[in-house]
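Lab meeting prep.
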Amino acid sequence: MANGKSLLLGLMVGGAISAAATLLTTPSSGKDLRGRVKDQGFEWKDMIANLKQDGLRLKEQLTETSKEGAALIKELTQEMKKSVEEWKQTVEPHQENIHQYLEQIETSLMDLEEKVKSQQA
């Protein structure tokens, strides 16, 4: 218990000595120091208020930007669906013709292969 009291007494004495040393070595009077501390407090308060306002503006901008982005994505998706449908409507009538043309090409290639084989033999 004596160690605890000694530690507490040492902290109190050390704190008092450091406070006295600070007051004695401060180049300005207590009144000036309190004035500067008060002014700096006002500056910090203003800075915090400005940061808060900037944060709110940023939040509003992010909200607006995300809404605009969502609207653009929705519009783009609708346009892409429309384009795909138009492409399908354009290609679908010709799909059978394309299929027949590919079959003709395949038949022609088979005939060509047979001719080449018969000439080699």
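Slide two material, second protein:
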Amino acid sequence: MRVGWQADERAHHKQRWSARTSLASAALAALLPLLYGGVGGVLLLLVGAGGIALTVAGLWWTLTRRGSARAAAAALAAVAPAAVIVMFDAANLLWVVLLSLALWVLAVWTGRYALRSTGLRPVRVREHRTPPPRRPFLVMNPHSGGAKVERFRLREKAERLGARVVLLDPEQPCDVTELARQAVADGADLLGVAGGDGTQALVAAVAAEHGLPFLVVSAGTRNHFAMDLGLDRDDPAACLDALSDGVELHVDLGFAGGRPFVNNVSFGVYGAVVQSPAYRDDKVGTALELLPELLTGQSGPRLTARAEGRTLACPQALLVSNNPYRRDDPAGLGRRERLDSGVLGVLGLRVDSAAEAAGLLLDPEASGLTVLTAREVVVDADHPTVDVGIDGEAFALPVPVHCRIAPRALRVRVPRLRPGVPQAQPRLDWRRLRKLAAAVGRTAVTGRPSRPN
């Protein structure tokens, strides 16, 4: 019909002009310093890049030095960017830089709008309709996340929905895994946790082992797993709606040396820092105390990691995650686009000098950073055991540590309505944007073709 055709044509028109606006904004953002400031503007941009490099170098020295050297490095890291801003302002180019940044933001926003409207949507985790559980069992940590269990009256709501709830007592530690196994033996048909990600992983492994659905209640401090599931982290009580009105997501579960993890396992610097008893009370102070020796190789084991035929020699930090984290979108850093890709994310970092640290920031493809995916990662060391952080909890594991992923092994029951589910942003593809910008009429959209009238 003509009305539908006109609506499609308007959508295609917006798509074309969004792509054109994106390309024009990106070009103007790059050319503006040259057009306004000439050669001097370009030189100032180079000075700005040098200032960024000095800032990163100062941060590196701050982390690897002690005493007066650390204080001087921290001062350099603070003074360098301030000096660059003063120089741009003195040359009357500060507004040019700010306008260039604004144009770049516009280019990214309009480019993603154009790509979203092509009809090519990111793959979403499939939702499975299942009947509500009849005998759910939940473990709750009343001290997790600043006493969220009590503040949001999670126990009362869960019991009203028919769940059996066990509160953990820090004065009487218990084996959470055995607690979950006993609940299964008593007939539980769903296992859940209101607590941190480390506790979530232990109970999730039991649920996966027995093929039972698993319920996540975002009552921890950070709730990274809950975030990537799209759950409401501000209102953990909303997670309990899954008991009465829920769907299931089949997601992956990671294992490191036989221990389960829902987020990641960290080797190297972070794995060593979290071992300190003082870390929980003073994270920054503990890290500054331990990092100089860890980053310069004076303490800690020398690691070697093998994944997908590649070898990572002596990384200072190694992160193996249950599905890869996003790196292409600053707004999406720390998030995983999918939880069911069936692969581990691997991120290895090795920096031996301030120059390499600066190069790492200026060049995302620098040799000191390794990013890949793999179904299995084997981590070895020159010590019999290696310190690791598994979902933020400290462990020491015998080497070699085999990390693997169990594809879609975990049935996670979540509320049908989840306000935390983000709209996945498409990756910027400048080649496709050029094609969209040059397209004529109805050929702009690459989604489903329209039916003939």
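Talking points for slide two:
The chain has twelve helices and 17 strands.
The two ends are 6 Å apart (CA to CA).
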